[in-house]
Write a structure and sequence with these properties.
Largest sheet of chain A: 6 strands, parallel
CATH superfamily of the largest domain in chain A: NAD(P)-binding Rossmann-like Domain
CATH class of the largest domain in chain A: Alpha Beta
Number of helices of chain A: 9
Mean pLDDT of chain A: 95
Strand content of chain A: 15-25%
Distance between the termini of chain A: 48 Å
Oligomer: homodimer
Order of helices and strands of chain A: HEHHEEHEHHEEHEHEEH
Strand order of the largest sheet of chain A: 6-5-4-7-8-9
Chain lengths: ~210, ~210
DNA sequence: TGGTGTGAACAACTTCACAGCG
DNA sequence: CGCTGTGAAGTTGTTCACACCA
């Protein structure tokens, strides 16, 4: 296979495969077929083979995939064979809970700085030792701490201006928890985590399929 | 238009349209064209017209859409012309932050109960007045409080068993924050909010487009 | 033999282009 | 005249079916 266009959805599924594979590895499994992995991930077996084939030939015909190797390959594909320094912007309820949340560090994402705009918070120290900086120091701190990803946990009204500041600071990966669509230049990649949309979708399904 | 199959993506966009429309309404705008709304939401104008046409004819040719009416129509479509009682399962960092987070109530989702499995937490009262119940009381409390949606904010390892208990209790809408794929029967609708997947996607983009 | 890798068929979603109506 | 509503075309993503190989 040459240089196919890779569906976004395929990338997201790789993360899901990794989780399943790591679980299997813990249980001591060495090799797995696309069929069994598919069942565990709730997808189609052909989907898995195609997703992996976008990036190379990782399987052994008649056998399956060696789990240890496959985990390493997928991590390399996704750029997870390293750690990523990230910054939290907005240290309110959600922001501080996310910083304390163990899932980031477990996957190699390290909160290297935190920012807010509230004068009462600036200079305070978070439980994990991070000092809260003023948002105006973003560019300086981003450089100092080698930060590549920004997490926006501000109110919706502030999201766009924070995004602008992140981009000026040279950050071009943004995880946006604010319920707002933010506009960014081509070079920057934004992912939205918007649970109001998800809830609305649930409400729709409950409403249409008999409360 | 008769009974077309409605793309999931269209439903999700309706939430985005509502947000933009409510903002416009606050600013005093009365009518808007699909073109202008599209620009604000970052989508194609035809997309908006098609999304809305799945559900009826809400526009006026040569004019556009009356904002007040359109908001009401979309809310009715999504089942947002009422409030929804929801339950939080897992009152850790993330769970308690979400309960305190204002976005749920703002959109008509009311936390009516909270559950955990940690004996030290059972019986404690949250800042908003909710008492933390033991997960084993789920079915009873769900009935008493008329809960239709469950929010899972437990560790991944507990997610599936919590989902099972929710379904037994008669809850068939689940918002899952745990990084795990959960299996549910047809009748139940699950939405996953998995920021590790989103971060991995950002890492991939940063890695492939020159750090 | 059994499971991968993959072209081809299929399905889903998006955008175009324009008829039709206020 | 301008903007909606919509069939048709285009695009993207998924599944099938089987050649191929350890």
């Amino acid at each position: 296979m040459k240089f196919p266009k890779i569906p976004m959805a395929a990338i997201n599924r790789l993360s899901i495969y990794i989780r399943a594979l790591e679980e299997l590895e813990e249980q001591g499994t060495k090799v797995i077929s696309s069929e069994r992995l598919a069942k565990q991930c709730g997808v189609n077996p052909a989907q898995i083979r195609k997703d992996l084939a976008y990036f190379g030939e990782f399987g052994v015909r008649g056998v399956g995939y060696r789990i240890e190797d496959l985990i390493r390959e997928i991590k390399e594909i996704l750029g997870l064979d390293r750690t990523w320094n990230i910054a939290m912007i907005g240290v309110g309820n959600l922001g501080s809970a996310l910083i304390r949340h163990g899932n980031f560090i477990k996957h190699g994402y390290v909160f290297a700085a935190a920012f807010d705009i509230d004068p009462h918070k600036i200079g305070k120290r978070l439980p994990n030792g991070l000092v809260i900086h003023h948002i105006d120091d973003l560019e300086k701190v981003v450089k100092e701490c080698d930060i590549h990803i920004g997490v926006i946990a501000t109110p919706a009204s502030a999201a766009q201006s924070v995004a602008n500041q992140l981009i000026i600071a040279g950050v071009n990966g943004i995880l946006n928890f604010a319920p707002a669509q933010i506009q960014v230049p081509e070079c920057c990649h934004v992912e939205n985590v918007d649970f109001t949309i998800k809830l609305d979708s649930i409400a729709y399904h409950l409403s249409t399929t008999g409360t």
